Amino acid sequence: MSVIELNGLQVQLGGRLVLDGLTGELRGNAIGLLGPNGAGKSTLINTLLGFHEPTSGSARVFGRDTRRERALIRQSVGYMPENDSFIGNMTGVRFVRYMAELAGLPPAEALERAHEALFYVGLGEVRYRKVSTYSLGMKQLIKLAQALAHGPKLLILDEPTNGLDPMARQRMIQTLQEIRKEGSIRLLISSHLLRDIDQTCDEVLILKAGRVAALCDIAEERRSHRNFIELETMGPTERFCETLRGLGCECATFAGGRIKLVMPDRIEPRDLYVTASETGLQIRRMNRRRDSLEDIFMRAMEAEPARGELVSL
Ligand SMILES: Nc1ncnc2c1ncn2[C@@H]1O[C@H](COP(=O)(O)OP(=O)(O)OP(=O)(O)O)[C@@H](O)[C@H]1O
After folding, report:
1. Contact 50, 74 (CB under 8 A)
2. The ABC transporter domain covers which part of the protein (predicted)?
3. How many CB atoms sit inside 10 A of residue 28's CB?
4. From the CB of 14, is ligand 1 less than 6 Å away?
């Protein structure tokens, strides 16, 4: 089932075209929204939530049009905004209950769900404290709790690890990983941090200057690049490559003793050293391919995305 569908989506703000013809279909359990500052990530989220009207084209969430079916979309979506917007005098539980009521739950159910959501994110013990006394990390967590309380089908998170120290960041990432694994809630996570997206998402939409720079299945990319290795060698490469091909590797040789390999899962780097020693080749350097999401991102940033089209990476 498609989570988000964009069809030539254009959004103009203050006389400026901020989203310029986005097209694509996102189906992942956890979708990353990446892009440099000003790329249009928050604008896209606000459009999905119905805060901005498309100037032309359309956006759909679970098949529902953001222009015409705004209320239905909001019922099924939990939103964790980037900026803090609390009523500081409320206790944690009162605030989350209030947000759940605004999302449509009756008061008694909202209260029950507020307790559950606060325990789930790890704020159970401080739920009767005023929100204004919470640390930055707790404030991020209560934003997550209020987004979860009404039982959404899609959780939209705008920069969820902003301002968190390494431990708090790791806890937030683990919670998002748990939500993904549990499987009943889809995630859309906006971030300018590749690492956050890499650790939590299986699909990514990369925006650049209001256009789609790339849309890809990270899990698939990871699988295909996992065992990509570059070697710098000295000595005869022919027998070495022949032996490796016999073991199921793809092997290409280049000038200066450079060899590129794609290895099947069962072959380990130490097997390369054994084969090299058996065939009289010296391996001087071995590089595993860089993080594939970083590769995808860098290529997307270098390419010039055409309006309404996807760049093939
Ligand atoms: N209300 C507005 N009126 C005019 N321009 C706007 C408005 N809101 C956003 N913009 C502009 O639209 C562009 C995209 O902004 P947006 O906040 O969507 O980017 P972003 O990718 O979320 O960036 P960041 O990572 O910095 O949060 C920016 O150049 C921004 O200045």
Report:
1. yes
2. 4-234
3. 20
4. yes
Q: Is the CB of 192 under 6 A from ligand 1?
A: yes
Q: In angstroms, what CA-CA distances link 176 with 76, 109, 223, 246? A: 18, 24, 22, 43
Instruction: Tell me the CA–centroid distance for residue 186 and ligand 1, in Å.
Output: 25
Backbone φ and ψ for 236, nearest 5 degrees, come out as -75, 125
For residue 307, report the distance from its CA to the centre of ligand 1, in Å. 18
Whether the Cβ atoms of residue 20 and residue 203 lie closer than 8 Å to each other = no
pLDDT in tens, 205-264: 999 999 999 898 887 776 665 567 889 999 999 999 999 999 888 888 988 999 988 888
Q: Is the CB of 41 under 6 A from ligand 1?
A: yes
CB of 42 shorter than 6 A to ligand 1? yes
Is residue 137 within 8 Å of residue 164, measured between CB atoms?
Answer: yes
pTM for this prediction: 0.80
- Provide the edge-to-edge strand list for the sheet that holds 77-80: 77-80, 154-158, 186-191, 30-34, 203-208, 211-217
pLDDT in tens, 86-101: 888 999 999 999 999 9
> What's the complex ipTM?
0.96
Atom index in ligand 1 nearest the CA of residue 46 equals 18
